[in-house]
Structures are given as structure tokens and as C-alpha cells.
Amino acid sequence: MSKHANAGRAERLDEVLGRVRARLAVPQRALLERFVAGYYAQVDPEDLGERSIDDLYGAALSHWQFARRRPPGSACVRAFNPTVEEHGWQSTHTVLEIVNDDMPFLVDSVTMELNRQGLTLHLIVHPILAVRRAADGALAEVEPQDAGASRRESFIHAEVDRLAEPARLEALAADLGRVLRDVRLAVTDWQAMRGRLAAIEADLAAQAPPVTADELDESRAFLRWLAEDHFTFLGYRCHDLVVAGGEDALRIVPGSGLGILREDPGREVAASFAALPPEVRAAAHAPELLIVTKANARSTVHRARTLDYVGVKRFDAAGRVCGEHRFLGLFTSMAYRAELPEVPLLRRKAANVIARAGVLPGSHAGKALVSILGSYPRDELFQTSEDDLLRTATGILHLGDRQRFRLFLRRDAFERFVVCMIYSPRETYTTELRKKWQAILLAALEGTGSEFNVHLSESALARVIITVRTTPGRIPAVDERALEARLAAAARRWDDALREALIASHGEAAGNALLARFDGALPVSYREEFSARAAVPDIELMARLTAAAPLGLSLYRPLEAEPGGLRFKLFHLGGPVPLSDSLPMLERMGLRVIDERPHRVAPAGEPPIWLHDFGVQTAAADAATDVHGLHAVFEDAFGRIFRGEVENDDFNRLVVAARLPASEIVVLRAYAKYLRQTGFTLSQGFIEATLAAHPEIARALVELFKARFDPARAAEGEGPARERAQAIEAALEGVENLSEDRALRQLLALVLATTRTNFWR
User: pTM score, two decimals?
Assistant: First the structure.
């Protein structure tokens, strides 16, 4: 820490000590000064600077008053919300005060419990003070750390998210009290547990159990290795394997419990063993000396991990399993860092797997397998059988660094959990994806909960281990490959689906070329709205856009569309199309525009392409049912209108209403304008509305014109034209509005009066 920071702390501390001198009587003053000086000696100056002098003084004095009397061999814990009115100082957070004998794991364990309860830790002050207490626990003196007659005590002041309910405060204090009790039990009995381990190892040397010499040597070496700071001993208990009620049971040997496994009054049998199915309990008779696995419970001491379980089977004079020595604790960081050849049991298991895999030592595959085992999750190496390890390790070997997805399942021997090891392309891994995998695995394995561990390295593959907690005897049979396919499907990114769709549509070379051009160009908004398969025709259309032909169009009907509902994509190279330009065109084609969703597509090194996706509604509720017959004429007509090749008027309503191409609507537009030139009294707007109101007659008029003048139909003679004219006459009988009837009859008369046309030139 910098000199400036130390100076800042000293200055702040002097101000707090000034309050002590000003407010306390002489008999207490010296004692409190020593306490406060030690209390804030190691606190971050920034934390001191964020709090007022009155509140720093109040917090220290409050903790001092709480610590005035503590029964020997116990922890004092309280949780409260200090206020100026009630306590003389205040905090916006809930305050925890703890006084305990100094021992390992206190801060780790308290912090772990707060995190388990979902509370944010805003401040922690943890001085270790040398104190002297009277026989009744009354605090008599605070002395220098090296005082020979003093006891070192831990003072923990923590501030967490504010809890308003008194019951919640009481529950939090009680939970922390249980955690501190576990810490005290583990620390107090630590040497005794190490002694039991040494005695067990010595007994194995004196009276060899019925196992091979190699297994015995490795097992004894493993027990010695545990004692060399590779295992944090938290609990021990001895059990007898007995038959109770006709079933196997593990009976607790009275007085054998140490640490967190000290006996509960009235308990005679191990409940966890009794809950196992009979066929699983029968495995207790197997002549395997060591059991290394995970316990059912998570540690409340030191680290937030599931407890490690090391069992040493006991054998009677006849060589039958008669019980078990059980140790609970946590493998230390040294155990996880140790090289594989240094770890008894694991080195033997790894050597057997390499030999059984059939790879040549020193070969590429041999070196790769050694590397796989060296980086294999250490907990899994301890727990997995040699057969399971061989299957999984060779499966990983075959993966190499290929971007492939694989799932490996391992069922716990006691059916308490299933370990699901997933290898997935690293670039696809996300937290959301991991949550999806957990949900799928929980459902498939009928789990009660799950935990996960993620390993990301320089490899192209990410390794995710999801441990699903299960109920013994109720794990369903699962098809591992089918489950793998479900997880892989959940991991498929939009980009992966697009690659597959483009290659399926265009072949590998052309598909990859389109992917390289447009994959990174499509915005997130587009990917969220359209499937990868739906993007293929859009990409094909955008790929054809040029400066000479910058417009692309696509009319389509979503599956979810209401009757008459359509959507229309307008692609434009270079810049967006203003709504003031596009909306009048669409509305004059008889469409009501509901919404517009713009997307900017930006291929690297190319001008951007703007995609305007319009939601439109047709006048007729059933018009959208024949979108396949409409989209070609609609897209052609809109393009012509957009380019100014066709007038933008209400005659264009016939595109949707009558399915007439823009080129044929020109015929009706020309006749209507001719009528105006002859002095016809009805307006062009009225004629446009009349034709839109009677689209079948409008279409029939165009068909009559084509029947009379289309050069390709000259050989048909006048018969077809005469029949069409008669059909129009019959249809006109159904027109009730006299003005509409008049306009339509005038158009029919003009078509019949026409003698020649240059329409087909």
C-alpha cells in the first residue's frame, strides 16, 4: 500500500481516536484507544473515507460492547440495523458483528454463507486482537499481539444488503452461528482426524486386507499423500456394516465422530446409506479398499464446494467387508496443482488407461492422451472408474481440436448424481446456452438440481461439466447420443443454421462464398426476426443488387398472419427509402400499411443495403391466401412505380384486387384518359374507384382487349372476343350503381370500338 494511503488511514484513525478521548471517561479511555487502533489497523483507506467519523466510532464501540462478555469456546453473533435513535450511529446496510476465538477459515466460511444466501457484502472489517478475559468470559484487556498470556480473538464486522424483517435477521445470525460451529469442530478435531488417518494407514501395513499388493501400496501411499497438506479434514466417522431388518446398513460406531461428523444424539445408522436402493447398497461388500467420491452436502467451511468423501473399507478376519472409515473434507489447492505422476491412485489409473487405449508411447496420439489425462478434471479423475475414464478419454482423443459437439455421461456409483461432461465449440458457449443445457439435462435425468463448472482454454473446444443431482433408484434410462443431439441442437447458433441452409441451397463453394459475404453483415435485429432458412432467399436477392439495379422486392405471407395480412420486403442498395416515398405507393395499390421494421445490412467493403419490412393488410380478407399468384405481379408493379415507369395512381389498386400486371393496367388507364378527352363527365378518380370495386369486370375488359388484338391469338378469330364481351354484358347486369354501370359500359364500348393498337410493338 502506498505511503499516501497509509497516511490517509492514519489521519482518519486519529479522528476516530479523537472521539474516544472526547467522549469516554478516563478509566476506559486507554483500553478503548488500543481496541479502536487495532480494530481499523488494516481497513482499506477508501472504506474509511466513505463513512463518517461518528459512524466509524459508533461501529467500533458497538462491537466492543458486544464483545464485553463471551462464554469460553463459543462464538457470539448478531445481525441488526443500526440507527442513530436506537444505537447512536447508523448504516444503510444490515450489520453483522461476530466475536470468536481466532482460527482458520473464519472469513472464508462467513463470506461463503453470505453469498449462499444471496447477500451482497459491502464491507468487511476483520481485526485479530490479543485479549485477556476473566474466567467468566468478561473482557479485561487488549494487549500487544506478542503478549504471552493473551488469546488471539477474531472480530468480524460485515455489512450486507439491508434486511428489514426481524425474523430474517435472527435467521441470518443463527445460520452464521451454525457455520462457525462447524468451523470450530473441524479446527478443534483437525489433529485428531489426521491421527486417525495415520492409524488406519498403519493398520493396513500391519494387517493387509484381501486386495492385491499393488492396490494396497497405492492406497497406503494415497492416505499418506492426503496428510501432506493435500486434504482439508473436516469430519471423520467410523461405521460397521450390519444387517438390519434384512437389509444392509451402516451403523455408526459410538464415540467415533470427529469434526463436523460428531454424532447427533439418537442417530445410530448413516441416513445417506439407508436411502440407497438395495442393489446399490450391496456394492458395499465389494472388496475395494478405497472409495473416493463426493458427499451429498456442500461444505459450510472454507470453500463453497460439495464435500469430498474418502472411505477406507474395514475387513474382518475372514476377509469380508465389515465397515468403513469415512473422512469428509476438501482437496486442497495443492492437490489440484499436483502433477498426475505425483498423485497415488491417479497415476496408476492413468497408466492403466494409456496401456488399454493401445496408443504408441511417444506417438502423436500417445502424447495427446497423456495431455488429456493431465488436464482432466481432477475431481472426476478421483471418482471415475477406469472403464469410464478409458471411454471418455478416448472419446476426447478422437475429438481432437475439431469443432464438434460431444457429451459424456458418468453415473455416480451411489446414484446420487450424474456428471455430464460437454465439449462444445468455444465460440458458441454463452451463459444463456449453459442454462439451456442445464434445463435439458435436469428434465432428461429427472434431477433435483444441478451445478456446473466451465473450462475455457486456448483449445477450440470449451468444456462444461454439469452435475445433475438425482434420487437414488430413480435415474431414468437415457439414450446418450439422442440426448447429445438435443444439447447440440440447443447450441446451434443462427450462423450455423445459415451455413447449413446456404450450402444445402447453393452447394459448398457458392454457399460458403455467400456466407462469407453476408454472415457478419446481417444485424441482430434481423436474426431475431427471421430464421436462417428464411434468410437464404433474402441473401440471394441482396447478392443481385447493383448500382444499376439497386432495388429488390419480396412479398410474402408469414405463417402467423391474420387473414388478409401480408408482409413486403423492400431492399435498397446505398441508403434507406423514405417512408414518404414508399407509403403512398403501397396505399395506392390498395394496401393498408400496419408497421415497418428497418434493418441495415452492411457487407464488409460494400455499400450498405437497407431492408424495409412492411406489414400490410389487403382490402379483402382472403386476398392473402393466393400470395404465390400475387407476389410476381405485385413486385413487378411496385418496381415500375418506384422507378417512375408507371404512374402512381389508384389504377394500381387493380394489381392486388384483380391480379393485373402493371403493363396491362396501362390499357385501362389509357381508355380512362381517352374518356376524359371526349368530355365524359365522370372523373378519373371515379373510374379508378369503379374498377377497383369490380375487379372481375376490370380483368375481363383487359382479357377482351387481349382477345381482340393479341397477335399471338389472331388464329382464334372473333369467337372468343365475342364470348368475352357477352360475359361482360352479363356481369354488368349485376352492377347496381348507375354511375358505375355507365362508366364500365363506356369502357366496354371503347374496347369494342377500337380497330388497332400499338400495345404489342
Answer: 0.74
